[in-house]
Amino acid sequence: MTNKTLTSCLGDLDITDGTVFDACANTDEEFKLIKKNWRKKVLAEHPDKGGDPDKFRTTNASFEVLRDLYQQSKVKDGTYSSYLSESAKAEAAESDIDIDELFTKYSKNTNVPSWDFYEEAAEEDVPGYKVETARSGRAKCTVCKKNSGKVAIADSAAAEASTAIVATSTASRSSSRAKKSASSAVVKQNDTTVIGLGEVRVGSFDKMAGSYGRWHHLECWRVPKKVQNGLTDPSDEESCLRDLLSMEEVLLTGLAAMDEEDQMTFVRHVINSDHWAGNRKRKAGAASGPVKQKVPRSRPNQSRHQKLPRGERRSPLDLLPM
Ligand SMILES: [Zn+2]
User: Fold this and answer.
1) Which candidate, 277, 259, 280, 278, places its Cα nearest to that of 269?
2) What letter would DSSP give residue 272?
3) Which UniProt keywords apply (predicted)?
4) Quick one: which of 68, 94, 110, 162 is 20 to 30 A from 320 by CA?
């Protein structure tokens, strides 16, 4: 037992006085401030910089407790500052979440991503990426759309060439073959640009729009360097899931809300270095031709029927060693 309270979680991030939240208009802004404090602390206390690993873990666990409350919209009275009031301190801030249990479990996560990871990952106010199970089959994949655009250009070029051929009455076998293959490619590409209902998709935060867009099929998403840097052991799926869940609200969002099967689908994509952005092997391949034959994507249609009911989500806590 740690007798942890929300007041002491805030204290671990050097937030002891409610007035620091005075300028915050809502919980979102309060949470951003909490995140800023956490980042400052975690960079200063990181074991890479000679910090005490236990203290580092406590800071992280306290942040994760506060983040859970935020994600589940369970911040009392919609304000973190209420946990710093005298009465809250006296009552040990009652809550329908067992803070002590939550903190104890989070503090058992011994993975320590590098200092550089924290430096880069927590730079932005808003997490850069969102992963989710598509709830509609309407969004198109940015990468596939771009590729099908290239094919369409090739197709219209071939059509122009063939018009020219008709005008001069010279039959060119190779041009008409090029045209045929280009247009059949368009038909195939059109079917695959859409991200189907129930598929895992990844989007990035659009600062102008203030929302997530540029959706990708999971298979089309290159794992950014920032995410790669946070993986402490890419050979271990469970460890990797813990690392990715601890990036929630920092570098990515949405993973904690997904069901177990989709979480693991995401993990398996992320740990495969063939999918990493900046992978040299991949770059060499990409440079070899403008319109490449598309590798068929595996669609987990069959397994959809064996999925857990929607309500049965895996909490990040279930993954932590007891
Ligand atoms: Zn795609």
Assistant:
1) 277
2) -
3) Metal-binding, Nucleus, Zinc, Zinc-finger
4) 94
Residue 40 lies in a domain: yes
- Contact between 76 and 95 (Cβ < 8 Å): yes
In a domain, 117, yes or no: no
Instruction: Check whether residue 176 and residue 95 sit in a common domain.
Output: no
Cα 207 to middle of ligand 1, angstroms? 22
- In the β-sheet with 200-206, what is the strand arrangement from edge to edge? 211-217, 200-206, 129-133, 252-253
Length of the chain as a residue count: 322
7 Cα–ligand 1 center, Å: 45
Task: With a threshold of 0.90, tell me whether the complex ipTM lies above it.
Answer: yes
Neighbouring-strand partners of residue 176: none
106-154 per-position pLDDT tens digit:
999 999 999 999 999 888 889 999 999 999 999 999 999 998 877 766 6
Q: What is the number of structural domains in the chain?
A: 3
Q: Please, what are the averages of pLDDT over each run of 10 residues along the chain (322 residues)? A: 84 94 94 96 96 96 95 88 78 69 92 94 90 94 89 66 50 48 47 92 96 97 96 96 96 97 98 90 46 49 45 54 53
Runs of H (alpha helix) within 72-127: 86-91, 99-106, 115-121
Judgement on whether residues 313 and 203 belong to the same structural domain of the protein: yes
Please give the Cα distance from 263 to 40 (Å, whole number). Answer: 29
Ligand 1 centre distance from Cα of residue 297 (Å): 9
CA 143 – ligand 1 centroid, Å: 5
Residue 231 CB partners (closer than 8 Å, separation 6+): 113, 240, 243, 244, 270, 271
CA of 261 to the centre of ligand 1 (A): 20
Which residues constitute the domain of residue 155? 142-192
